[in-house]
UniProtKB/TrEMBL annotation:
The keyword DNA repair does not apply. This is Phosphotriesterase-related protein. InterPro entries: Metal_Hydrolase (IPR032466), Phosphotriesterase (IPR001559). Binds 2 divalent metal cations per subunit. Its cofactor is a divalent metal cation. Belongs to the metallo-dependent hydrolases superfamily. Phosphotriesterase family.
Length: 290
């Protein structure tokens, strides 16, 4: 499923959240500029991107596949549903069984009316400090779909909150914790909070690298150093979760290559080992996805 090389584990090749965010900046539909940045990443050794765009982020699987074809990067696509305020009405009306069938079909047959098969469930989300009734339906269906297909689950935590509760939910549902990653944990800024999740056996993602308006990257690097010290170097991924035009280089943003060009050197200077960096970017994704 993944090619040898670097993997960004939580990205969006195209995504449109503008109807709720009320800014065109959150309609990431700049095809040529995205291809250009993906080609640049390819030169730096990136071979895989896990694209976690689903219903109803205005996904466009054929657009994503075209970017993959033109850039040479293997883009893994997803099925599932996001957090409550972005959920389509379908989730309100559907039963858990119907949501499950929807995801299994997209994994086994193809996303929407395409033949592009989903290889991951997610990013399934919870709201800030809570899991709504509709989100619970999505999480329940996701676990059943995972048990049927064996594909991994990747989650969204709003500002890093409700991560512990997500893990407890998965444990109660007897989900395969070795195939679950809790997203956006770096937004907590709290290494003990993250270590508690790692103690339970799930993976975690530092996937908002470069978003210093939330947390400084220096803190992310310091937390990673502590996680390595505690022996959890097999259970962490890195990514950037770029969702805005202004994040891209053509608009003066940090761009996708920031992770490799800026954050990795910062982490190494902070005391994170080169071995841990390699695990987060190459070996751990391979273990998780394959």
């Amino acid at each position: 499923m993944l090619l040898d090389g670097i993997t960004y584990m939580h990205e969006h090749t195209t995504i449109d959240l503008s109807r709720l965010k009320n800014t065109d900046d959150t309609n990431l539909n700049c095809f040529d500029e995205t291809v250009s940045e993906y080609k640049k990443m390819y030169i730096k050794g990136v071979r895989n991107i896990v694209d976690v765009t689903n219903m109803d982020m205005r996904r466009n699987p054929e657009y994503v596949q075209k970017v993959a074809d033109l850039s040479g990067i293997n883009v893994v696509q997803a099925t599932g549903f996001y957090q409550d305020k972005f959920l389509p009405e379908f989730v309100t009306e559907a039963t858990v069984d119907q949501l499950t069938e929807f995801m299994i079909k997209e994994i086994e047959t193809g996303i929407a009316d395409t033949s592009i098969k989903a290889q991951v469930i997610g990013e399934i989300g919870t709201s800030k400090d809570t899991m709504t009734e509709r989100e619970r339906k999505v999480f329940t269906a996701s676990v059943i779909a995972q048990k049927h297909t064996g594909v991994p689950i990747t989650t969204h935590t709003t500002l890093g909150t409700y991560g512990h509760e997500q893990v407890e939910f998965f444990k109660a549902q007897k989900a395969n914790l070795e195939k679950i990653v809790i997203g956006h944990v770096d937004l907590t800024g709290n290494v003990d909070y993250i270590l508690h999740m790692l103690d339970q056996g799930v993976y975690v993602e530092f996937d908002t690298i470069g978003k210093e308006n939330y947390q400084p990257d220096s803190l992310r690097a310091t937390m990673l150093k502590e996680i390595e010290k505690r022996g959890y170097d097999d259970k962490v991924f890195l990514s950037m979760d770029i969702t805005r035009k202004s994040n891209l280089e053509y608009q003066g943003g940090i761009g996708y290559s920031y992770l490799l060009d800026k954050f990795v050197p910062l982490a190494l200077e902070t005391g994170v080992s080169e071995h841990f960096i390699k695990k987060m970017l190459q070996y751990n994704p391979q273990t998780f996805m394959n």
